[in-house]
Known about the structure:
Largest sheet: 7 strands, parallel
Order of helices and strands: HHEHEHEHEHHEHEEHEEEHEEHE
Helix content: 40-55%
Number of strands: 13
Strand order of the largest sheet: 3-2-1-4-5-6-11
Low-confidence stretches: 1-8
Strand content: 15-25%
Shape: globular
Structural class: alpha/beta
Mean pLDDT: 92
Amino acid sequence: xxxxxxxxxxxxVKPFTGTYQGRRVLVTGHTGFKGSWLTLWLxxxxxxxxxxxxxxxxxxxxxxxxxxxxxDRRLDIRGIGPLQSVFGEVQPEIVFHLAAQPLVRRxxxxxxxxxxxxxxxxxxxxxxxxxxxxxxxxxVVTSDKCYENHxxxxxxxxxxxxxxxxPYSASxxxxxxxxxxxxxxxxNAESAPLLAxxxxxxxxxxxxxxxxRLVPDAVRAWQAGIPLHVRNPGAVRPWxxxxxxxxxxxxxxxxxxxxxxxxxxxxxxxxxxEASTVRDLVERATQAYGKGxxxx
Length: 296
């Protein structure tokens, strides 16, 4: 995708300039897949960006490839002290919280890491926002897996019941409850930050080297000369390119900045008619890659 050739500008997606030009923006999880793309976009928009995250987990990784000249802070959001110190130093006006343990299978292997990062880490970020005057808009990114899973064929609505069978999904529901609690208990005064949560999933795109994700797993298998094993080819998923939900997050923060009444929870995804099966995505990936075998 030409990450060294100003990709966001190249594909013609440079709105929001009036909102973010010169703004102090803090992004947690900026070294991750979505976080690195969001940080790049904010940089292109002229924002003064501070990133807070652990080091990237993969080599290679999108963040290192970008080589952005930004304020790069490496710390664990599970510690409130260092996090609050960064907030006090940079005095952000807008906060995007993306730092998380994002993998379902990893959550089974290490549920305590998943819960402490996704729930208590979110609480720490919101507490730092609460204690820092000047924070005006906060977007907490969770997941469309935060809903109680009924296995029904239609999409979930924002007012459907939260839940989750696996530790990852349940932790994202927990993060939603933490955000709702802070919104009701602390962020209801006129001078308080405006807080919204953003629920998205099945995000694909360049720069993703994560484990247990379909497209990265496919490329790794084909590079190794082995077939890709697909567990559930008939499953229908609302696939979306990474820039699509990020545009939603940027638009949501802009609306919070301009229209205080929009605090709440929001789903981000394609129309139901645009969802496709795992098989269809794998076949398209195989065609784009030019070679590779698949074991359906």
